[in-house]
Amino acid sequence: MSWRDAPLHVEAASLCQDVHARAAGWAGPGAAPIAAPCAEAALALSEAVALALTFPEVRAAQLQAADEAVVRLRERLRLAGALGLLSPGALRQLTGQLSAIGRMIGGWRRRRGPQARDP
After folding, report:
1. Taking the CB of residue 24, how many other CB atoms lie within 10 A of it?
2. For the chain, what is the radius of gyration of the CA atoms?
3. Contact in structure between 93 and 72 (CB atoms under 8 Å)
4. Which of 10, 27, 39, 70 is the most buried (most CB within 10 A)?
5. Closest CA to 101 of 3, 1, 16, 2
6. Distance of alpha carbon 46 from alpha carbon 11, whole angstroms
7. What would the pLDDT profile of 36-72 be if each residue is shown by its tens digit?
């Protein structure tokens, strides 16, 4: 694991914990269908980052998976906000964390070169 890439893992794991904690507290008839997918997308993001850090031979594919998980989670969080499951402040905080993670993933992919972006 590269020391320059470890902050990405820390941020992704922290976001995953945050999303899981919030989703567990969502209640109401519209909560269940969105809580589980939000939690799953957050876990997929954290796992993809961990795998990219640990296994260089699958790094490009895992960074692509992490990028895709960022998009999925962002859309699911926006839906949760629209359904009233997340306050506007909580939505801003989580999507802000997600944006920072997305920038870190993009930076790592750029450092790896053009071959890493187009598998």
Report:
1. 10
2. 15
3. no
4. 70
5. 16
6. 9
7. 999 999 999 999 999 999 999 999 999 999 999 999 9
